[in-house]
Amino acid sequence: MPPGRTAGRGPLGLPVFRESDGPSVARKALEHRLIPSPRGSNRSYADFVGDLTRWS
User: Fold this and answer.
1) Is 7 helix (H, G, I), strand (E, B) or coil?
2) Contact at 8 Å (CB) between 16 and 8?
3) What is the pLDDT of residue 8?
4) pTM of the full predicted structure?
5) How many CA atoms lie within 13 A of 30 on its CB side?
6) Which residue intervals of the chain are DSSP H helices?
7) Mean pLDDT over residues 21-27, rounded?
8) Backbone phi, then psi, for 20, in 5-degree steps?
9) d(C-alpha 19, C-alpha 48), whole Å
10) Are 37 and 30 in contact (CB under 8 A)?
11) Averaged over 28-53, what is the pLDDT?
12) What's the CA gap between 50 and 22, in Å, rounded?
């Protein structure tokens, strides 16, 4: 572990942000009018499907 870091703490402190928290963070940001809309796409999934298509 890097110096100055402790187990269970992210660089910004607690709570640690997890990727799975993204949708709820976007919803809260939208509720508080911090973003116009929760835009996004799952490019990794699209790439995966494209790879599968090319393999067959």
Assistant:
1) coil
2) yes
3) 55
4) 0.43
5) 10
6) 22-31, 43-55
7) 86
8) -65, -15
9) 19
10) yes
11) 84
12) 25
